[in-house]
């Protein structure tokens, strides 16, 4: 395992240790593009969770592109999905750039959906998973019940408020009869990866919650366990969500966002470039690199 993958994500988790980090202008904050638009079209606050790197990568892509159009972008870091949806509904956040509203975050949409505007789906193959390292000789979630001792009766999860956590605790564990034999241990994405890193170094059995797209699947050599009962849900689309009235207030941004569509290769490359090749503090350079290699990724992409 290349240690830079893990170290970078731990740093992101530490940076997001407060529920709300201070806002900073995209042009003034470290990693801001400092290019393109002069902010004449207004200021857009972009909320994201740094430890959820699917959203981290699209957040910085959107910052780059909206600033080139002519907006000022303020990046707002949060640590849980709940406060992010609440901020979006209340207008404290203008955009959430990597939402899972169809299944994973359905409960948040049921609560706040009337105050949220769907700006469009841009990726259609997102999936929640239960995963183990490739060297572990089980292939299905059904195999966990008879192997609790091997895994110390623990599934290592991420943030308590994540939709992935609720799906695992409320659906997967009871559906496969793991109540009483397994505990879902939640903390943070960074903490889960710490446990995973340690287990892989010792070639110890470990089972974790994961999702796709997520760079750690490839970096750590994870395999998804088969889910014959469908307890983790079907594949869903990732969406850009805006606060109510977003498209009316920021029509140029809404039109641009509606044109974004990424396939598996494009999304994987974007996340890997931002998180692994460049890392924290070099997001603007990462976006420049990715755009240079994917100038025709989607119709509205601004490559200059």
Summarize it.
With 304 residues, this protein is an alpha+beta fold. Helix content is 38%, strand content 19%. The strands form 3 sheets. Strands 4, 5, 8, 9 and 10 form a 5-stranded antiparallel sheet that branches.
pLDDT averaged residue by residue:
88
Question: What level of helicity do the residues show?
Answer: 25-40%
Strand/helix succession: HEEHEHEHEEHEHEHEEHHHH
Radius of gyration: 19 Å
Termini gap: 36 Å
Point out poorly predicted stretches.
1-36
Instruction: Indicate the proportion of strand residues.
Output: 15-25%
Count of discrete alpha- or pi-helical segments spanning 4 or more residues: 11
What about the largest sheet? 5 strands, antiparallel
Question: How many runs of DSSP E, i.e. beta strands?
Answer: 10
Shape: globular
Which structural class should the secondary elements be placed in?
alpha+beta
Descriptive report:
The protein is built from eleven helices and ten strands. The protein has 304 residues and is of the alpha+beta class. Helix 1 runs antiparallel to helix 6 (189-201) and helix 10 runs antiparallel to helix 11. The strands form three sheets. Strands 4, 5, 8, 9 and 10 form a five-stranded antiparallel β-sheet that branches. The protein has a three-stranded mixed β-sheet with strand order 1-3-2, with helices on both faces. The protein has helices spanning 3-15, 53-69, 81-90, 106-112, 163-175, 189-201, 216-219, 246-249, 251-258, 264-278, 283-293, and strands at 24-25, 43-48, 72-77, 95-99, 116-133, 154-156, 183-185, 208-212, 222-224, 236-243. Strand 2 (43-48), helix 2 (53-69) and strand 3 (72-77) form a beta-alpha-beta unit. Residues 1-36 have low confidence and may be disordered. The two termini are 36 Å apart.
